[in-house]
Amino acid sequence: MQVSYKWLKDYVDFDLTPDELAHLLTHAGLEVETIESPGKGLEKIVIGVIKEIAPHPNADKLRVTKVDVGHEILEIVCGAKNIFEGAKTPIAQVGVELPGGFKIGKAKLRGIASYGMICSEDELGLVEERQPGVMIIERDCKAGDSFVEVMGLDDYILTLNITPNYAHCLSMIGVAREVAARVGKPLKQPEVVVQETGPAIEKLTGIEIQDTDLCPRYSARLIRGVKIGESPEWLQRRLEAAGVRPINNVVDATNFVLMEMGQPLHAFDYDQLQDGKIIVRRACNDEELITLDDKQRKLDTDVLCICDIERPVCIAGVMGGANSEVTENTVNILLESAYFNPINIRKTARKYAIPSEASYRFERGVDINAVIEAGNRAIQLIKELAGGEIAAGIIDVYPEIVDRLKIHLRTQKVCDLIGVTLDRDEIVDLLRRLQFGVEVRGEDMDVTVPTFRGDVTLEVDLIEEVARMYGYNNIPSELPMADYRIGRLTRSQLLEDQTREFMNSVGLTETMSFSFINPNSYNKLNLNPTHEWRNSIRLMNPISEEYAVMRRTLLADILKIMSFNAKRQMGQIRIFELARIYIPGDDVLPEEPRMLTAGVVGLDEKDRWNQNAAGYFHLKGILEAYARKFGVGELTYSHGEHDALHPGRTALIKAHGEVLGYLGEIHPDVMGNYDLKERVTVFELNFEKIVELSDTEVTFSDLPKYPALTRDIALLVDTKVSAQDICEVIQKIGKEYLETVEIFDLYQGAQVPDGKKSMAYAMSYRAKDRTLTDDEVNALIDELLERLQDKFGAEIRGN
Amino acid sequence: MKEKLNSIEHEALQLINTANDLDVLNQLRVRFLGKKGEITSVLKGMGQLSPEERPVVGAMANELKNRIETVLEDRKVTLEREAKLQRLQKEEIDLTLPGEPVIYGKAHPLTAVFAELKRIFLGMGFDVAEGPEIETDYYNFEALNIPRWHPARDMQDTFFITDEVLLRTHTSPIQVRTMQKGELPIRIIAFGRVYRVDMDATHIPNFRQIEALVIDKGITFANLKETINVMVKGIFGENRKTRLRPSYFPFTEPSAEVDVSCFVCDGVGCRLCKGSGWLEIGGAGMVHPRVLEMSGIDSEEYSGFAFGMGIERIAMLKTGINDIRLIYENDLRFLNQF
Ligand SMILES: [Zn+2]
User: Fold this and answer.
1) Are residues B178 and B307 in the same domain?
2) B210 to chain A: which residues are within 8 Å by CB?
3) Residue B40 lies in domain
4) What pLDDT digit, counting tens, does each position of B215-237 carry?
5) Which residue of A has its CA nearest to B289?
6) Tens digits of per-residue pLDDT, B25-62?
7) ipTM over 0.90
8) Distance between CA atoms of residues B167 and B158, nearest Å
9) CA distance A82 to A61
10) Lower CB density within 10 Å: C or N end of chain A?
């Protein structure tokens, strides 16, 4: 809502600068977003009266003028064709800077000195488009007058951000009321005397409300014999200050009252109303109406319409119909001032997507008891602007009178909630300044709420009014009293924090992406058509297809981010994200488990096993350390299948027999889809499972008392046999004596037959209660080698 | 023989003290003290002496042996020390060469800000509560005193999944879920992703909020002010001032916007604060009695306050990030700055 500083002074006599006014309003809860002055930068422009015009001796297109600027006559060379002797024009004298940054200097134009410039509207920054001539001022003024004052540009426009509860501040008087309450000055409301010179209104029209639930009050005034024309300057200026485009004197008068009092009004061309009658009713399903914006609207029974005896002529509170519009030919006018059901107006405005100043106010609730006053103000204004005779009386259909609400307010409750000691009389004073009626009842009071304050319905609403008037800044600050305790994180919250820190410490940078993705991401991941991820929750109103479904994997984003950064010459990329995914199910709300997903690319291609899979072993090392640190249990890796991953390089990860997720290289086809050139390795784990399995309670175990014996073995096995297969056998045979086992060499190539590989393991054996003998360990090793030969056909190369 | 011994002494001491390496020193030891050494050979000639002279010369020879031994030892220590010093000097390195690179990842700026806020609130006795991001209309709106068709719904443009299910527009449904558990008093912070249909230079459709909720007997607006004060000083520094100004949220009454004094100009007015001297950081208020009642809490017995902020906003103010889109673009050149 735009508030003109000058206009506001019509209603309250305040002595504040625009900045001080903004501060006051902001602390009243009316946040001021901007303060703008339309005359800013034009303060030095003066009115000049052209006294003489002579031809330029050296140029056909230029003329030499003598301009009176008050205290002197200036010679100015001008090229405009529309100047004439006696014209009043804006003059920029030597030394003045125009809003565009152009500074006027003494200039010689084709040999003749010029001491200033006669300006056009575009040169003054008042309009965008280039003007054919200079600005001719037709207002009452004299040479040397301030241009901004003459033009009424010496104003400040405050743009307020009005919250939905402050409907009463959607008008100049509403804002003035808040100012008046704070500066302690009276509110000056316009006095209206309606000059009724016509016949009784009942003889000319009649009103019937069929749906009083949607229209609790409807009033009408009538004026005959108006002359439609342009509004006077003062009115146009007021409307422009409020951000409303002037149309004609009748429409402008209703808009003026809308802005002044906050009551939307509608003017009908009376002669277009069949039988001159108004019926307020729900539309029928087959009815249609062409609205003022020339659009054909299909109506239905949820839409309240203003109708004549035959047809709708207006969508109530939202937009008028073209069939009853006030045009330049209109002579007789029926003026509506009514109250409509806010929710119904909101639904209708939504349905037709026509937000308007009127519907905006009806939605938030106008003052049902100010309907008549607004109608009176407007009809009198129309008469003053457009002539005509006002029919005597008002038709006012108001079947159920809305009484002012009475609320009991306890002094103690005010103090208890705000945390400040106020006595009853202070509270009474603060509320009365806001025009609440207050009757003292012992220590407490009964408060009568004016109907323009529809937002105040409970005791607590009044407490807010008291706090607002008292000033939030004057309320003390004080920590709440409570039993001393420190807050605690749940195990799951703590592990989430620790996981993030761990991943940072091993080189992974945290990324964050939106929870919604493009469903086409699943194609880019090469998922088969029936992959469960494709069953993703879809938004009804996404920003775009790019953010249309709730993701079921963080992989798509990890790859997107890698691709984005790879294109920016990032060589090595190591990233992770820990966030929720969304799995639809049978319940109303989906499951939202957290996933821990990481990706690396561009690491050195050498890994210790010469598998050309540096990323895989890098991430695997991280996962193993992570699982150990947070007691997730021993991780096992088996050949996994995943549409997005490399078929030979995909591991299904389990702990305690439960699936945690996948570790693997991105499938070359998928890399292509993301424009990635180098091998990318990722893991995606179900973080909820990790939380479930993690056990970080540590119990001390005695340090070993007896020495350990170490043994190495080297084997030749089929390439299909995995390191883990062999480990499992070593563990099984080693029983409780095996302390550690580690593969320390893997070799394929020269001296190793095709299809075979050489592997070397180091083991350490120890007994808890005695020194193991060589013989005992040798026996274990013999058994082990025998088993390895039996099970894998292993060829023993040494031990 | 005494002369002989004297001359041996003279020569030995001179040679030993000028010896420059351990090998020479060893040769001198052999020459003077060895089984075939000079002193031994002197002693071998003792037979020629008178019985009176013998013990005197014998004592002299032993004394000389000891003296040479001591000097030899001293010289050896000196030479060894010098040798070690030389060796260490040779091992000198260029101390200014760069260290071995250690690779570590960076915490996301939002995670860092949340961690800081969490420490502050845990210290004040708040627990951390969570809730679903996909919510029902009831928890996101109805239970927070925002009935359907209320104009306040315009304040939060909502992503819908069905007519009843939506992406939460704020973290406040967590308040409702916490209150409904019926365990009083309540002192929690809620944190997480929230969603609004908005995407431009200053808005992203998926952002994060943190909010605090306290419900107990005798909680006042003054308590709200001070709790915010403590939090603001904790996160933005001791010199920051807080101000509350009236505003509107359907779930609080009275309601307030929270401003913090600008840390660039300290309240004088600058570009960051658009000349006002204050930066808006969030909303706050006393929990609306209707919200308490809907969650089964007696609003005559209990009162409470709540306040919430956008984490992105806090991170931007703290670090000077000037474009909110950077936060979700995941450009490593950006992320590596934190
Ligand atoms: Zn500033």
Assistant:
1) yes
2) none
3) 2-90
4) 999 999 999 999 999 999 999 99
5) A460
6) 888 888 888 888 888 887 787 778 788 888 888 888 88
7) no
8) 7
9) 12
10) C
